[in-house]
Amino acid sequence: MNTRAHPRGLLAELTAQLGHYIRLMRLDRPIGIWLLLWPTLWGLWISSQGSPDPWVFTVFVLGAVIMRSAGCVINDFADRNLDGKVSRTRERPLAAGTVAPAEAIVLFLALCMIALGLVLTLNRMTQLLAVGAVVLTVVYPFCKRFFTAPQLVLGIAFAWALPMAFAAQTGEIPRLAWLMSLTVVVWALVYDTMYAMADRADDLEAGMRSTAILFGQADVFVISVLQLVMLFALLLVGEVAMLGVWYRLSVLFSALFMLYQFVLIRKRDPQNCFRAFLNNRHIGATIFAGIALSYIFPD
């Protein structure tokens, strides 16, 4: 009887460990995937005039999922001794001890190798840019210890997908790609500051740094200014890319989402700040819808 039970017990143990790995990669919380994927799709659609190469599209979608997962793994590895001091993160697999640090490193390297295999199917310029993406992925988690605005590094890491998308699709990186990248950097400063506002008390106690701490009581004002800059940049992107009324409507709807986020964060309630952070996925989807519709139904 014990012999029969043993395989089932082993299977249950493997299934439980797989669940820990999924949580470590945050696949159960895909908000980061969406925040990385939407601007990637913006770049693919605009660089291809609405008709991205199917294989390039596949590589970038898979790459967004894989590299975001790798980023979460290396982030939790870097914070494994700090997450236990923060109420929201103390149950993360590394902090809770359900995944060993060595396992996390192996998982991170495995994800990077998969991403490398995908990017090797693309052109040389994209491959070179991919090296920068990996460097940013590794550097960002450690910035929180010494850099007062680690959200800026995160923004650059997420925006790096834009020049990569243009390079993969067209073999060059026009000024429009860099304009879109700057727009995404500003957007990341907005939403990750909202995220940091939810954790400000814990970050101060743990000695971590963030733009929420840097901005202090001016945080809501600075976020509002950055959102206005982002809206202006989005409109400029539309003009340069010659997008139509659908795109301009998507920017208008994005402004309404930003107004809703202001209402959520104005009293700095941690739970509402986190809700405002999550709401940004709708902005990414709305802008993408405006881009796609502008090519489907040109003015």
Task: Describe the model.
The structure is a single chain. The longest helix has 27 residues, at 270-296. With 299 residues, the chain is mostly helical. The model has no long low-confidence stretch (mean pLDDT 92). It has one domain: Orthogonal Bundle (Tetracycline Repressor, domain 2). It has helices at 2-24, 31-47, 54-78, 93-96, 101-119, 124-143, 150-159, 161-170, 175-198, 200-206, 211-215, 219-240, 245-265, 270-296. The chain is globular. It is built from 14 helices and no strands.
* Estimated helix fraction: over 70%
The H-level CATH homologous superfamily, spelled out, is UbiA prenyltransferase
Q: From the helix content, strand content and strand pairing, which structural class follows?
A: mainly alpha
Instruction: Estimate the strand proportion.
Output: under 5%
Major sheet attributes: none
Rg (CA only): 20 Å
Q: Summarize model confidence as the mean pLDDT.
A: 92
- What's the helix-strand series? HHHHHHHHHHHHHH
**CATH architecture assignment:** Orthogonal Bundle
CATH class category label: Mainly Alpha
Total of DSSP H or I helical runs spanning 4+ residues: 14
CATH topology descriptor: Tetracycline Repressor, domain 2
What is the subunit organization of this protein? single chain
**Broad shape:** globular
Q: What number of domains?
A: 1
Number of beta strands: 0
Query: pLDDT under 50 segments (min length 5)?
Result: none
Distance between the termini: 72 Å
